[in-house]
Each structure stands twice: as C-alpha cells, then as structure tokens.
Amino acid sequence: MAPVVDTLRLTAEDAIGLVQRGDVSAGELHAAYLEAIEERDGELHAYLRTVEEADGASIPIALKDVISTRGVETTAGSRILEGYVPVFDATVAARCRAAGLTLLGKTNTDEFAMGSSTENSAWGPSRNPWDPALVPGGSGGGTAAAVSAGLAPWGLGSDTGGSIKQPSALCGNVGLRPTYGSVSRFGVVAFASSLDQIGPVAKTVRDVALLYSIIAGRDRCDSTTVELPEEVRLPEDERVDGLRIGVPRQLADLDAIEPGVRAAFERSLELAEELGAELGECDLPLSYRYGMPCYYLVAPAEASSNLARYDGVRYGLRTEADTYDGMVERTRDDGFGPEPKRRIMLGTYALSAGYYEAFYGQAQKVRTLLIREHREALEPFDVIATPTSPAVAFPIGDKAADPLAMYACDLLTIPSCLAGLPGLSIPCGLSDGLPVGLQLLGPQFGENTLFRLGHALERALGFDTVPERLR
Length: 471
Ligand code: GLN
Fold this sequence. Notes:
The chain has a single domain, classed as Alpha-Beta Complex (Amidase signature (AS) enzymes). The protein is globular and about 70 Å long. It has helices spanning 12-20, 26-44, 91-98, 141-148, 165-171, 205-215, 259-274, 285-306, 324-335, 338-351, 357-378, 403-407, 414-418, 447-461, and strands at 47-50, 59-64, 101-107, 154-159, 174-177, 197-202, 244-248, 278-282, 383-387, 423-431, 434-441. Strand 2, helix 3 (91-98) and strand 3 form a beta-alpha-beta unit. It has an eleven-stranded mixed sheet with strand order 1-3-2-4-6-5-10-11-9-7-8, sandwiched between helices. The protein is α/β, with parallel strands linked by helices and 471 residues long. The chain binds glutamine (GLN). Glutamine binds next to loops.
C-alpha cells in the first residue's frame, strides 16, 4: 500500500494544510513519518528512539535528545544518562505540545552536544542522507539528517558554537540559531550556559520562522529570557531592495574555505544583489583569529561545571563501589565518553586557581572584544553574510582522531555565538554534489530581517532540499 503522503518533500506548512483541510488525519501523518523512518533510518540512524502514537495533536516534530521530554528517555547522546526519563517537559517541548505539535522522536547528538559530526554519540554516528558514507555534521546531526531525509517535517536543535547551523548546512536544511535570550533553556541538558540556544531546523525559511514563533519569548523558568521586542513575521515573497549586506574582508584569506563553498557563496551574493540588496565589506579580524581559542576555553569551563551534576546519585547510570567517592568516580569514568572527559579536564584546568586569570579571565576579555567587533561590523549593515561551514560534509572517521580538525569545522559559526547574535543557515548550492550553507548573521533580535532575506534568496536559488539519491 502506498503511503498517504510523501514525506520527502512535505514542508511543515504543507503538512499543516493537509491536516487542516482534512486531507489526512494527524494519525495518518504520524504513521507516514514512522513508515519513512522504518524504511530509511536503519541506514541513517537519525533517531535514538521514536514515539509510536500521535497523542491526538496535529503535526509531528523531532527533538534533539538534549531536550527533556516528559515520559520519554532523554540521554543527550551519553551513557551517563542512559535510562533517564524526565518527569517534566523542557519549556520548548511544552510550547510545541501546547501549539499542537506531537513528538515523533528524539534525535541523535554528539555526547552533551560536544562535536561537529555526531560521531561522538555514545549510541553510534548518524549518517548524511546525501551520502551515507559522510557525516551529517553536528552536534545536531540527527535532527538535520531526519529533516533532510523526510523523517520529520521539522525539528529542534541546540546550538552552542554551531550545532544547528553547521549540520543544517551539511544536510541542505534551513537552521536558525536564535539571539541568546530569546528561547528558554529550561529543561535542556546544559553544555555551556552562556552560549546554549535552542532553535528550529526545517526545509524552508517560513517553516523555521513559524517554529521560532512557537518557542520564543520570555519564560519565567529561565531568567536569561526576554519577551521578543517585535513579533515574528513569516516572510512573504518580496524583493529586498536597499537591504545592506556586509561581507567580512577576512574571508578572502581563510584557506580553510573550500573553492566549491566559496563559489556557491559568491553566487548567492550575486543573487542577493539581483534581488535589490546592497553589498559592502566589513571587518571581523579578531573573530576568525581568536574566536575558536576563546570558545574552547569558555565552553569547556562552563561544561566542566555543568557536568559536575552527573554523579551517579540523581540521574541515569550508576556504577556501584564500596565508598561514595568510589561510586562517583566509577560512574563518571564509565558514563562519560572521551570528548566530555577531554572538555571537563580542559575546563577544570582553565578554571583552576593560578590559571583562572590567564585562561578563563583572558577568554572573557576576548569575548567582550568579539561582541564589540560584531556590533561595529553590523553598524552600517542589516546582515553579515559568510559561508556557514568552510567545507562540505566529510567522510565518517576522517576527523574523529583529530580534535583540533574537528573543532575547526566551527571557524565561521563560533564568533557570532560568542557575541550572542542570531544566525540563519540556508542551503545555497552544491559543491561536488553536496550541500553548501550560507550563513546570515544579524544584530540581537534581528531574526525577522534574516527570515526576509533568507526567504527571498531561497526562492531565487531554487535549491532542491531532497538529497539526489532519494529523489
Ligand atoms: N562543535 C562545537 C563544539 O564541539 C559546537 C557544538 C554545539 O554547538 N553544541 O563545541
């Protein structure tokens, strides 16, 4: 029997239309996605677990496994949280539920969202739907692979230094890392609290904007959140006359950017000009020089403190021993994989007496400079454009043994994360048959402008989000 809907091309907006018109029921839609998962997820491993029944609501959604879901196991890709079943929903999960979205499943992630390829998951890697020999990016590779392969109309990821934008780029999806403070982190497994943000991944900019409107806004359970200064506007078809786009001069000197990525990026800038935008040059010299070292002190420092709570007493795994200290030690040794261990050590060192000022203190000062640099660069522009990732998807195993090569994947996404700014990644073409992402950065709460430009470009580019081998 042919499935009722072909999930490969279905956008969330399409799905909402089908259900509202009564063309398919919520149950049939959910079943169609489960069928697609059954068919294709054996190869891709986008999901860690699925939810069998639609709970009467309407449109299915996939949530990255760092988001707590009441009654559904939440592991953050780590053995140390194996068997942990939250008794409450994260605010974003609750808001999705309240908006009539129903949980389709929990998607794979690098352990505690630490990584750029999803290979650091304790449950095995996810694969890229464009070529299963390649990584889908990370840490939100599960959500990205699911959306790209039609295993979910949309999903939520978390982004600390690029984990929404980079996998979206590598899988040909649209992904938004929102302004820090616009989306609640309550109930989300914390990695680096001053950087973590939750955001949508989908096939279109309009779907991303719609999902953003559902999750954003003040939450009294997360004191870093604020009410959005303006309502989310779903972008309409229009030109972008007079919109000013800044392109960092420093991109020209970054050898890490592959020629095919550069070509697709430049083509999308030409298109933006044809749509009425005005291009100019801006400067982010400190960002590309010091962004990574700064992030790899701040993020591990915060992680070392956030991960101290996994002691075998309260959540998930416990390895028994004769003494309390022995139990904690053995639990942490068994439960954490190599990457969280590396970061706990790095972060603890950076925070330790005698080194605090030299490492963590200096990194905080650099962060302030990066905030300032972005503010100045954005002064004459509405948007800054760069490629999202310097390279397209790479083979599984390629960088697994080389942490620094893995960290370098986030060269272009990290600086604006440190500055707390929003970033939208849209697919802007292919290089060697693989998707290339265009990153659009804006000032705080500049999401509506990113959506407007992203939507106009998306239409002009006409990128087919369905991986060639699945068409
Ligand atoms: N790849 C980066 C890291 O490993 C970013 C991860 C993220 O944004 N969660 O820290």
